[in-house]
Amino acid sequence: MPQMLLIPDPKPLDKRLGKKFFKKAPRRPGVYLMKNAQDEVVYVGKAKDLKQRLANYRLANPDRMPRRHLKMVNEVTKIELRHCKSDAGAIKTERKLIRELRPKFNRAGVWPGKTKFLVWRCEQQAIELSVRETPETGWQRFGPLGGGATHLQRSLARLMWLAVNPDQPMSKMPAGWMKGGFKESTVIKCGDLFKETSAAFEQYFFGDAESFVLWLGEKFSHRIVPFERRVIDAELETLREFAKRKLSERKQRDQMTLI
After folding, report:
1. 131 and 70, same structural domain?
2. Domain shared by 56 and 97, yes or no
3. 137 and 26 in a common domain
């Protein structure tokens, strides 16, 4: 039987910026401004680890990268890095730049969004996740949140699906999930792992958020396929960043109460 030829994933940014750009990217907090050929900023992002975050943009496989991100990567000709002293500083700088520049590929943070809640319910050995402006009876809720509620819902859904389906590759995830094609409500069928998963999940919002992230990390120790690891690490970072913002906002509210 003849061997199938493997076609490598496209790397348009490697061609435009050079591999050295990604190798020299610092492992420190900061923001990155993606620019097009006209030197217009088309996207602003932030990262706790710039090197790790930028690596996620190198592979531009149309079957694995959301269409919006693929279009953005194909427009980018330059990436400007701005270092920050801390992750909190990067978050603050990102928000400021997005509101000032209004990059066309940024969705959250450009204009004040509607109030949104991340809501969920656990029944019949499954966890159902959704984002609602007005939570309904029978759903647990967290919020109000801004435009990041939907992004958080998708990250949680993808990670929990991988956690409760340890023998399934990422390619077997429900159709559209890797490209952002989610329905209003997302259902993760947990089976025998329902009690363990639901208990760990609620810790993320109402207990020790880091313990949930660590629990997820243990579920992924056997996943060594490079693409899967990059996606998983990026999604886990999303959860960590949200947890840090939640803790920071709680401290600010406590300080205001003491004044």
Report:
1. no
2. yes
3. no
46: which strand partners?
31
On average, the pLDDT of the chain sits at 84
25 pLDDT exceeds 80? yes
Domains of the chain: total:
2
Task: Return the pLDDT at 94.
Answer: 92
Answer with the one of 101, 133, 155 that is the final residue of a domain.
Answer: 101
Give φ, ψ of 38 to 5 degrees. Answer: -90, 10
Peptide bond into 144 cis (omega under 30): yes
Query: pLDDT higher for 252 or 89?
Result: 89
Q: Which of 114, 96, 104 is nearest to 46 (CA)?
A: 96
Lowest mean pLDDT among 3-7, 127-131, 163-167, 176-180: 3-7
Q: Running DSSP on this structure, what letter comes out for residue 112?
A: -
The mean per-residue pLDDT over the stretch 177-191 comes to 83
Using only C-alpha atoms, what is the Rg of the chain? 19
Number of other CB atoms surrounding residue 200 within 10 Å? 20
User: What's this model's pTM, rounded to 2 decimal places?
Assistant: 0.57
- Regarding whether 18 and 83 lie in a shared domain, the answer is yes
Please report, for residues 45, 107, 140, the alpha-carbon distance to residue 74 in angstroms, rounded to integers and kept in the order given: 17, 18, 40
In this structure, is residue 29 part of a structural domain?
A: yes
Cα angle, residue 258 at apex, residues 255 and 259 outer, rounded to 5°: 90
> Is residue 70 situated within a structural domain?
yes
pLDDT band at 113 (very low <50, low <70, confident <90, very high): low
Residues 244 and 120 occupy one common structural domain: yes
